[in-house]
Amino acid sequence: MSDVAEQLRTECLRRLKESEERIAKCLGLMSEEQIWLRPNTHVVSVGNLVLHLCGNVGQWINATLGEMPDIRTREDEFSERGPVPRADLLARLGKVMDLAYRTIAELPLQGLTRSWKVQGFEETGTAILLHVVEHFSYHTGQITLHTKLMLDMDTGYYAAADLNAKG
Fold it and tell me: Are 46 and 26 in contact (CB under 8 A)?
């Protein structure tokens, strides 16, 4: 595999794992009630966002790039009112992500460059990886915002880093 393709794979895995850890941290900070709170009719709960990420990664990475059956029912991700217990949400996310990490790690170079059909779109493997990473990160940010708004706290993601360092 080319150096660029391997670097893409490594960075996608790193970013997805970082986001998964952040989601787990947020779920650990919230009560079951907070996980399923819908602030208004236009905002879904953190629990719904986790289910949505499981569906998205399951469809785009596991079913498409991993060539497994696509069993996603997208509407269910948003219609669930819970409470699905925190432990079950984390287990679902962990199971989907473990398979995704293996699928990404084992994806051959031609899997990155060929076209795939997913969710009504035709995308290259590279585009699928970029979509999933940005989509996962976007919803991780929403989960983080929910956490900060509900708990009035800093999540401490960067507590060990000097973010004022230059270069």
Answer: yes
CB–CB of 111/125 below 8 Å? yes
Q: Which domains does the chain have, with CATH numbers?
A: 3-151 (1.20.120.450)
Task: Extract the tokens encoding 9.
Answer: 């794979």
Cα 167 from Cα 152, distance rounded (Å): 32
- CB within 8 Å of 135: residues ≥ 6 apart: 53, 56
> How confident is the prediction along the chain (167 residues), in pLDDT tens digits per residue?
689 999 999 999 999 999 999 999 999 999 999 999 999 999 999 999 999 999 999 999 999 999 999 999 999 999 999 889 999 999 999 999 999 999 999 999 999 999 999 999 999 999 999 999 999 999 999 999 999 999 999 999 999 999 999 98
Q: How much is the pTM? A: 0.95
